[in-house]
Amino acid sequence: MADEATPAGGHPPNFVSIKAQYNGDVRRFAVDSDTSSFQQLCSKLRSVYNMTNEELVVKWIDEEGDPCTMSTDLELWEALRLFKTNKDQVFRIIVTATMSRTLSIKNSFKRKPAEAAKPSVQILEPNNLHNPAASPMKRTDTINRVGGIRRVKVHKVNGHSFRATHFHQPTICTHCRGVIWGLLKQGYQCSTCRVVIHKRCHKFIVTKCLAIDKSGGDNDSVALAPSAPLSHTFKDHNYMSPTFCAHCGSLLVGLFRQGKKCGGCGINIHRRCEKRVHAECNPNRKIAKKGAPMPIGGASQVPALQSGSHSSSPASPAGHSRPGSAHSDGSDPSNRLSTISTGTFVYNGIMKNATTIDRDPSRHHSSIDEYNLIKVLGRGSYAKVMLAERKNNHDGTLYAIKIIKKERIMQDEDIDWVRTEKHVFQNADHPFLVRMYECFQTEARLFFVMEYVNGGDLMFHMQRERRLPEASARFYAAEIALALHFLHGRGIIYRDLKLDNVLLLADGHIKLADYGMCKEGVHYGQSTNTFCGTPNYIAPEVLKEMDYGHSVDWWALGILLFEMMVGRSPFEAKSEDELFEAILEDEVFIPTTLSRDASAVIKAFLVKDPANRLGCKAENSIADIQKHVFFSPLDWTRLTDRTLPPPFKPEVGTAMDTSNFDAEFTAEKVALTPDDPSSLDNVDQGEFEGFSYINMSLMGDEEREA
To answer: Are residues 389 and 304 in the same domain?
Structure first.
């Protein structure tokens, strides 16, 4: 559809020209940059696109072409400020609309569950492939790139469900009584009882969540006193100076009787918070303010912190173990803080001083200035990947450098995901996994220097070929299965298998890339429950918010096999919620053009019950897959040794040939915008301490020289 016409005569100086895109429909309109709020922008978008009450996700395209999510007035105003600073002509935004995912998932529980062992597959005759009655879901003839999704991270501590929250006014931490500074999502707030706390203080909270108290569950909180606690005696109170609520941390506003004060312990609260605050009025509660860490999950009591020492350093690890925040059920019982005499934090045996970027004087860490950036190879929600070469090395080695903005991952609480990606890179010593040469950082960005795989990804080749012969799909699926089995054996779930992440070498073998959604520490028999993945590939157990293990990777491999041999996704819909319903309830329609063996392996991988899914019945899952009749033509020994000839070799010209990558990316301008000093104020550099790393087994002697 053509753009909406701009009114004649242009706009007043304070108006900004908006170019919005929604489902391919591009419209133009103007907003007042001085008075517009985020809600007004959403209302305008609903009006322009004739929407009703859909939930909108609005992303601003910054000067580097990266999509930046906006959800508050402050984020909109900051985007408009940068827009004016850069003197851009058009303020570009991308809009998506969806219903509540939570409502969709809850509704799925009301449906009658399918039989556990029943495959979610139905054979579809060729003449019914486009029959709406036989296949009610929307079908397309092509496969397109779709980004992964992650549910908002929840930190479970003592019954509280803490989420990163943006506060629109000065707010006080209910633990240390300090001001919660910063922009964007400055601190944590419990979604149940609304208590507010610093990110660094959330592990120290002593009181149980009010909902847990009322239900009588969760007995792992600290006993504040052996005697029965007294009850608060709240009375209306007049405050002569600015005072903050001891529960939600926000200011008590008004001219008189602004809040209530307890005659026993002296705490001040809003009237609206009286029903949420704990009934215990006990002077011993003040012990918590001295920094006594709380035992979680029955752990033994650890020594108290020095008074005030915990208020200057965040309690987030930067070492080699990832906390349980990627688990939506919270921290591991062993992940607790203790102190030493110097006041440095120790987290699982790793000392950290969370104030400076790591600098190891014993080795040389590279910088981006040592590389020539050549082409943009790809772009995701959080990062871009560029082709590069070292300036001081003339052996012809090329690298793919993944560049991530620190501010972006700080906004979305994704620091742990970056740490995990680094750890997986350090363990990715397998011929079918992309390896990392080194990683380093600046004040504004993180850099992963990886192997350059010049054959492009399977998505690129699938969009050209439409579908692959069964022999080719078998070969690629087998190599992917070996890579997944290697990760599973090291307690790693991949969780983002898709065509985009399967790269082809010049010799035709594959390598899995992008470990940003991996989960560590999940061995056979263990599970996690984070909601994440690419929508078309998410397994039913993830959508049902059940605990899951390696089974989700084998489901995704079944989806991938279907896409390679059929040329489309088995589950498609007009919206994300309809897609999730289809995955949970619908059967997969397999064309009869596929062989009996190909149909059988898809059925085996796409069983909705993970207990009966191929690859999930035993610890040695790869053996069951190797024995399946579909894979019987393969010599697995030669495949493992990479001596089995691949079915296809991509055309690669010169060393710097990027013809196997989307022109949408390679045509982009190769540049890094200068760092914005104001944005650096939002980055806690201590969170990235210890990030720099060199893979000594890959880096040559010349590359390691200072």
So the answer is: no
Record the tokens describing residue 445, joined without a space: 């960005």
Q: Are 352 and 337 in contact (CB under 8 A)?
A: no
- Structure token pair of residue 652: 């690669």
Whole-number Å distance between alpha carbons of 203 and 655: 51
481 neighbors 497 (Cβ within 8 angstroms): no
205 with 229, same domain: the answer is: yes
Contact 694, 438 (CB under 8 A): yes
Q: Based on the domain organization, do 391 and 415 belong to the same domain?
A: yes
Coil, helix or strand at residue 280:
strand
Are 683 and 444 within 8 A, CB to CB? yes
Cα(315)–Cα(175) distance, integer angstroms: 14
Q: Is 667 exposed, middle or buried (0-12, 13-18, 19+ CB in 10 A)?
A: exposed
> Is there a single domain that holds both residue 414 and residue 344?
no
pLDDT (0 to 100) of residue 91: 87
- Please tell me the predicted confidence (pLDDT) of residue 101: 40
What pLDDT is stored for residue 297 in this prediction? 35
Q: Please count the structural domains in the chain.
A: 3
Which of the listed residues 45, 63, 98 is the one where a domain comes to its end?
98
Q: Is residue 85 a contact partner of residue 10, using CB atoms and an 8 Å limit?
A: no
Predicted local confidence at residue 411, as pLDDT: 66
- State the residue range of the domain holding 19: 15-98
Task: Give the C-alpha separation, 465 to 142, whole Å.
Answer: 10
**99 labelled as ligand-binding?**
no
User: Any idea of the CA torsion for 613, 618, 623, 626, to the nearest 10 degrees?
Assistant: 0
Write the CATH number for 39.
3.10.20.90
Residue 6 is predicted with a pLDDT of 42
- Based on the fold, state whether residues 219 and 260 are members of the same structural domain: yes
| Residue 389 shares a structural domain with residue 313 | no
Residue 280's pLDDT is 65
Write the CATH number for 215: 3.30.60.20
Catalytic pick from 416, 496, 514, 577? 496
**Which pLDDT does position 62 carry in this prediction?**
73
pLDDT score for 599? 95
- 202 in the same domain as 344: yes
Consult the annotation and say whether 87 binds a ligand. Answer: no
For the chain, residues with pLDDT lower than 70 are 1-13, 35, 63-66, 98-153, 166-169, 181-186, 191-192, 206, 210-230, 278-365, 381, 411-413, 619, 682, 699-706
**How open is the CA angle 637-641-645, to the nearest 5 degrees?**
90
Q: What is the token pair recorded at 271?
A: 């009237």
Closest CA to 174 of 244, 232, 247, 243: 247
Active-site annotation holds for 329? no
